[in-house]
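Supplementary Methods, section 5.1.

A reviewer requested that the exact input to the structure prediction be made available. We therefore reproduce it here, unchanged from the version used in the analyses.
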Amino acid sequence: MTGKTVYREKIDRIRNHLANIDKPKGLYPNYINPQTGKWGQVHVSMGALGDSFYEYLFKAWLWSGKTDSQAKEMYDTAMMNVELQMLKTSKGGLKYFGEYTNGRIEHKMDHLACFVGGLYGLSAPYAKDPEHYNMMGREITRTCHESYRKTATKLGPEAMRFADNVEAEGTRPNDKSYLLRPETFESYFVMWRMTKDPKYREWGWEAAQAIETYCRADFGYSGVKDVYQESPIPDDVQQSYFLAETLKYLYLLFSDDDVLSLDKWVLNTEAHPLPVQNPA
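The structure derived from this sequence is encoded token-by-token as follows.
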């Protein structure tokens, strides 16, 4: 945006360090000491704290006009390792990414991680195994849709858990809220653009109706405290990302492909469009 190299140099220094540092089982923990450059607690998540890192590795390559080879190589390797260490399949056949802490997996996936379905779909054409990436995009997005389908409001929980008798459901009080989050709709939008499967528009319309029914307030929209209650209590907060992301992704889901074409624009983690450099 400015042409000043100082900004790129700072990012390159950080990224080069991350590329070269030893990584536990090839994973990128969420915590690193800014003074020593060493990892802190070995906690790895595709949701809170970790999500945007993976997204920006791939999108930095896209934004560069597919010239930033380091970003693409780091992305390919990172996704291979999170699949090896964190990808699980429930008894009912739902794929999800658990959270990794010191070698142990917590069978929980945040709503924040639901962007991953779209990330797989977006990167599938450039993957070494496109069909595998397409499958992963479909399956992670299906899991996130299931978390919506299973609630009384048809709104998704803040976190979903998996156990012997639990499939993509929030079981703890903090799991059960809906904070007007966009990540599932982001995946619906990307998967629609990449596959043209009408179910993604159908799922998006169901969610839009649920938001209108349960989140509409006198002067905006509110999150709800428990998506499993038929008459949920509002939390009286309209999150800033609701306009920037949630409604934008729902709008784009039903727009023509030339509205923010994915060949010409990259949407950052807050859904702000950046023009691709020298698009083909």
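The first strand starts at residue 43 and ends at 44. These observations are discussed further in the main text.
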